[in-house]
């Protein structure tokens, strides 16, 4: 059995990284890359995937991403998923162009659009992360997390300019728009283009 793995939240400047692994047990119709599905369609598929698969979802908060770096957090999440689902799956496939140095992990670019298990993982990760960002929005009313979900939109960057970062923000993700030196990146975290 194949376990598909995908993430949501690699690029945002606030909120968690969410990685999901899915082993499909029964047929699920309408699966695709979460980015091409409407929010309504993703949310309708979410409980169907939960009901018809074995799955595991890993959240990594902004503070841990700042401390360990994004690549390490991704690798740790994938290893946790592989450990949790090893009885259900004998093959693991990650969307993207790297296996993060994990010997038994395969990878494929655009797997989230072409392999149903990875599509399902993409939906679980995206819906879980979006739900989290909407839930915390009330605790951080200055930032409108429910609107941009932590991504570096112009409106979000303007709010950071006005109020500074909160503890849901990734402090190692430098913002050019704030005059931060984008070369000063801690522990291999990616550069921000915003």
From TrEMBL:
Keyword Cytoplasm: yes
Keywords (A to Z) from UniProt: Cytoplasm, Endonuclease, Hydrolase, Manganese, Metal-binding, Nuclease
Record-linked SUPFAM superfamilies: Ribonuclease H-like (SSF53098)
Subcellular location: Cytoplasm
Task of the protein: Endonuclease that specifically degrades the RNA of RNA-DNA hybrids.
Family: Belongs to the RNase HII family.
Protein name as catalogued: Ribonuclease HII
């Amino acid at each position: 059995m194949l376990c598909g793995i995908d993430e949501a939240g690699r690029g945002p400047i606030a909120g968690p990284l969410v990685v999901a692994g899915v082993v499909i047990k029964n047929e699920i119709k309408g699966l695709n890359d979460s980015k091409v599905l409407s929010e309504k369609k993703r949310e309708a598929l979410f409980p169907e995937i939960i009901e018809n698969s074995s799955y595991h979802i890993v959240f990594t908060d902004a503070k841990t991403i700042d401390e360990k770096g994004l690549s390490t957090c991704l690798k740790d999440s994938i290893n946790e998923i592989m450990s949790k689902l090893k009885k259900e799956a004998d093959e693991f496939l990650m969307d993207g162009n790297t296996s993060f140095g994990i010997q038994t992990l395969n990878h494929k670019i655009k797997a989230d659009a072409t392999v149903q298990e990875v599509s399902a993982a993409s939906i679980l990760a995206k819906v879980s992360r979006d739900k989290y960002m909407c839930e915390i929005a009330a605790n951080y009313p200055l930032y409108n997390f429910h609107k941009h979900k932590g991504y570096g939109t112009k409106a979000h960057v303007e709010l950071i300019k006005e109020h500074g970062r909160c503890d849901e923000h990734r402090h190692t993700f430098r913002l050019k728009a704030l005059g931060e030196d984008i070369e000063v990146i801690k522990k291999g975290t990616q550069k921000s283009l915003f």
